[in-house]
Design goal:
single chain; 208 residues; mainly beta; Ribosomal Protein L25, Chain P; RNA Polymerase Alpha Subunit, Chain A, domain 2; 2 domains; four-stranded mixed sheet; 13 strands; 14% helix; elongated; disordered C terminus
Length: 208
């Protein structure tokens, strides 16, 4: 089981347009909901949230500790509103997962190893996709799935989704034939190299 990033929150009583006051205090308004659960309004430290999400990744599952509750909630980020669309977070919606029910979500890929076709043949590593879709129970959800590029010894070699080895309890549902990584050959100079000539030969060539 992967180590989960932890977020700390407190129940929120300020609702509606008044949440602007929370943001001015460095707090991020949030809601958590789930299958068969009543939605709960929360507030988090905005800087702590941003730091944790940047480190763990927005697609990760988080351990959410709510003040006054004895057990943590395991949540995914379902919606993240940002100021102006790309600025600092201004509201987040968490989805609380059922630990006994499989979930369908995306997991990032992590490139490991060194491709011989890059090291020995001066090729360029090409990574076609950055994540795959998996099905698993929430506590089996990995932080990433490794792509070992040491298998790429020639320009004809490829790694597809079907070549990946997910951890136990994790099923990759992305089409197995989907290309993950390959190595492209170095580009050749058009026309080849221009041979060098000495000054006399160069002058004669110019006269001709």
């Amino acid at each position: 089981m992967a180590t989960r990033a932890t977020l700390t929150a407190a129940p929120r009583s300020i609702l509606g347009k008044q949440v602007k006051r929370l943001r001015q205090q460095g707090l991020l308004p949030a809601n958590v909901y789930g299958r068969g659960l009543e939605s709960l309004a929360l507030q988090l430290d905005a800087r702590e949230f941003l730091r944790t999400v940047r480190a763990a990744g927005v697609r990760s599952m988080f351990e959410l500790k709510v003040e006054g509750e004895s057990q943590p909630r395991y949540v995914l980020i379902r919606a993240l509103q940002r100021k102006g669309g790309t600025g600092d977070p201004i509201h987040v919606d968490f989805y609380q997962v059922d630990l006994n029910r499989p979930i369908l979500t995306n997991v990032p890929l992590r490139v490991v190893g060194e491709a011989p076709a890059v090291r020995d043949l001066a090729g360029t590593l090409l990574v076609a996709i950055e994540s795959v879709t998996v099905r698993c129970r929430p506590l089996d959800l990995p932080e990433a799935i490794e792509v070992d590029v040491s298998k790429l010894a020639s320009f004809d070699a490829t790694i597809t989704v079907g070549d990946l080895t997910p951890p136990p309890g994790v099923e990759v549902v992305t089409e197995p034939s989907t290309l993950v990584a390959t190595v492209s050959p170095p580009r050749l100079r058009l026309g080849g190299e221009t041979p060098a000539v000495d000054g006399a030969e160069g002058a004669e060539a110019a006269e001709e």
